[in-house]
Amino acid sequence: MMAALSFAAAAVLVIFSGTSADDSGHFCNTAEYEKQVVTEKCSEFTYMTLHKYILDRSASGLADESDGAIQASVRNWEDYPETSPDCVFVRRQPVSKEVCCPGWEGPDCDIGTETDMMQYNVINQTSELSFKTCLNFGPHYYRTFDGRVYEFPGMCTYTLVAEEPWYINVKMVNCALCRTCRKELDMSFSGTNKITALADKVTVQDDTYYITHSRGYRGNGIIIEKIGDYYYLECVSAGVRVKWDDKSTVSVTLTDEYEGTSLMGLCGDRNRNPADDFKNGTVSFTNAAAFGNSYLVETDDEQICPEVAEAVYHFKDNLIERLAKYKCWVLLSSVFAGCHDEVNVASYYKQCLSDYCAAINSFPEDHAEAEDVRCTVISGYAHECAEREKIINWRTGHLCPRTCTNGMTYTPYGPRCPRTCSNLKMVLPQWCSQPVPGYCCPPGTVLHNDTCIKQEECPCTYRKQTYKAGAVTKIGCNKRHCCQWCIMDFCVK
Predict the structure, then answer these.
(1) For the segment 166-178, what is each residue's pLDDT rounded down to a tens digit?
(2) How far apart are CA 229 and CA 330, in angstroms?
């Protein structure tokens, strides 16, 4: 078994070095999501949305119309289809592409390349974007607003980002292991309203809410909702958006007004210069450990927290080194080839190697922790790709599979605003078209009470009373079969 493993790992290393006995071209297949564009009558809006299409407002000549105006037009076209003009609808579909295998380039993929995958520590963010995002995932991975990547293995509570009068602190919960690591957020955006969040549990002042796809929170200028795999908190007045998941990923996005301001915390400043991110006020630091320790937050529920040293990992032996490279190779493979020009993969590959190695060294008889580490890093890279419109269909039954319930399917390109029985016929805001990874209902079905059902199974509501599909009720002196969007007529007495 060990011999077979060593051989497989060695074969992977040949690809890294850019050498091969075959000089006729080295092509590999990758699966990406591409836009599928169709033109249909605007009166087909409901049918198209039911099958995961989104109305392209610009291509349909509706870019200058408000949501309400488009909604009124759609209703009129559905009632009078003979008056309907054409509309353009789009959706993303997985498409197989042929690209150069890792280690090869050129029109015929026959030019060998060699790259030192350990040399990078900066992730470039597109400068044209009107926002920048700080990222923290796993037990100790951080990326600042300016793109500097570092490891800080602190296990207490730290200031993630702050500028008077608001702050966001992050508490490491059971983060000695990747598989048990969770992040608890402590936030305030007005100086008075305190918000804490741990997965779906959110506390605003003294009131606790459990956030689901169908139940969120709105109040005091704060919007909290669950979309796909993630929970989103947005404070529009502060220009801040916070995103977290059920495990260990947290990101903070700021609008462009914070360019060059005096931000504090593990996310660094935001001046497009990653070299000066390691500072606290006027004090600069030469290493990540000292920088991270300087932002320790003393809390009442924690014991005195010791300072931590730099995170240093070494391969225990050659076999573990080969195993780590074999397991992390998917990041360099053709699976993600379409994203390599958009997001620097080297830093993620380095992170995968070091974390996988540390997990194997700590738990040599139990590889579950190492697998969780690998999936966390790969998922982080895939998410970075998705934010740049590079949607990779990377999960398989053997690689970080996801289990679905209630008729849902998992997709890396899910709807930000899922179609439900109540909004299927609605024209949703433009921001709803932004994709997110997560569970969604298959085409032809909609979400209702966190379960996927067919459109004809949707209940209807009349005078605040909900009726099951197919139910019969008496309205005035008439019996009416209940269905979605049914019209109840009253008899003339």
Answers:
(1) 999 999 999 888 8
(2) 22
